[in-house]
Automatic annotation (TrEMBL):
The keyword Lipid biosynthesis does not apply. Belongs to the ABC transporter superfamily. The keyword Nucleotide-binding applies. This is ABC transporter ATP-binding protein. Transmembrane segments: none annotated.
Amino acid sequence: MDGAASAALTLDTAISVSRVGKTFSARHSVRALEQVDFTVQRGEFVSILGPSGCGKSTLLRMVAGLIQPDSGGEVHVLKHLQTQMSDDVGVVFQTHNMLPWETVEANIRLAAEVRKLPKKDIDERVEALLPLLKLEKFRHNYPHELSGGMRQRAALGQILVMRPKVLLLDEPFGALDALTRDQLNVELLRLWQEMRQTVLLITHSISEAVFLSDRVLVMSERPGRIIEDMRIDLPRPRDPRKTKEAVEFGHYVAQLGHLMGVD
Ligand SMILES: Nc1ncnc2c1ncn2[C@@H]1O[C@H](COP(=O)(O)OP(=O)(O)OP(=O)(O)O)[C@@H](O)[C@H]1O
């Protein structure tokens, strides 16, 4: 890391991505990312918007330690060079990862049990999580007995049980209808306000990004670069109706729409 990049790694930095590029060379060579640089402070909620195929998921998987950048690029999470997955970082994908033959509660307990956390601690964590996720009444249900929104809430629970300091969300509500998605966004904000993890969210929805975030990063067409880093100065806590009716909300949405060429 050079001087400037290391200076950016202040005490409060949770995620630092510096000079990251990625070329995949499977069937044919694809340059997915080019010179990506950004930092996320501890406790910040940051969203990434960008056209389909610009490398958003690739970037998130790098922050998760699932794939490595090309030489020269570095990703640090909580001051550690990210070379593999760690329990400090939780990732939720668009499709859930629940075992169909286990109940909601058993699925939520799973990661903590695999890591052999004391039963008492797991019990406490699950009892705290179920009401937060509004799943108390469904704890004994199986995944196929849940609605899509409940399944994604349970999937979030499977990750939150590990109390990750950094939460990476790859379009976690992307497959849901608009109404359920709006409801889950409100719940996600509520959870974040209680737990205050650092969150990095990938979304295709401009209004979702503005509603949830402290900052929105916009990526270019592939190879993806960060072309905008916009601070969202809307007051918190954010009431959905008041926030979305605010003139400033409309301005942010319009500015981002313009940058993404959708206006
Ligand atoms: N494991 C891989 N092997 C080869 N190519 C890959 C791999 N993963 C991603 N790519 C390519 O890298 C590019 C970026 O993909 P990525 O999934 O990161 O984009 P994205 O912005 O998340 O897309 P979308 O918004 O459509 O989900 C694509 O061209 C994709 O085909």
